[in-house]
Amino acid sequence: MERHIVKRTHRIIVTEELIRENAVEPVLEIGAGDYSFRYLMAGDEAKWLTVDFSPPCDVQVNLNDEKLKLPFESSSLTTVVCTEVLEHLLWPQQLVSEVYRILAPGGKFVLSVPNCVSLSYRVAWMLGRLPSCASGGNLPPELGSTAYRKPNGEIIGGHVVDFNCSRMVGLLNGAGFEVEKMRGSGIIWHRQILPYWMVPASFASNIICLAVKSRK
Which residues of the chain are under the pLDDT cut of 50? Predict the structure, then answer.
């Protein structure tokens, strides 16, 4: 799926750290169309598989399906990466449940979502403004800022679900995951305003999690 150009902010840096510290081959990355972390497997990219709505990807799947079934066997993978995807899905719980199914016991799930109650967005709400990450669905870009137009004029839908830390934890726990780490991206407003080490996850622009499938 065609998307915006992704800037190298602390969301990328923190996600890289979690992947380097926890990823075990092979790695499945879901929704890698705009920015894939495959480069972290330099020299052995064959052990990094990508899934998305449309090319470029290794496996094409409609992730926005209420009855989504990922084409992988149960307990067959050790690491799944999914960044800035869940907020675009009508049924994010279905994708999270599928990730739980395909991960082996002890498998790691690295994911991130925008935080709709970040420090900068709390200011925007107070001023009566809709923050740029707020869900806007298929509204045109001038009305829903997370949507955008392709060169041919087609509208690519934006965010449909808003997340904060408690909703993220609830979603993961509901699928059976244990949240091992929760980090933030700092404050990002068109650029990096405050670094990640200065801002707790609950106030950060993005929530970045490491979840683990129980070995029980």
Answer: 1-3
Q: What is the pLDDT of residues 53-88, one digit of tens each?
A: 888 899 999 999 999 999 999 999 999 999 999 999
Q: Where do the domains of the chain lie, and which CATH numbers do they carry?
A: 10-115+162-213 (3.40.50.150)
Judge if pTM exceeds 0.90: yes
Report the 3 state secondary structure along the chain: CCCCCCCCCHHHHHHHHHHHHHCCCCEEEECCCCCCCHHHHCCCHHHEEEEECCCCCCEECCCCCCCCCCCCCCCCEEEEEEECCHHHCCCHHHHHHHHHHHEEEEEEEEEEEECCCCHHHHHHHHCCCCCCCCCCCCCCCCCCCCCEECCCCCEECCCCCCCCHHHHHHHHHHHCEEEEEEEECCEECCCEEECHHHCCHHHCCEEEEEEEECCC
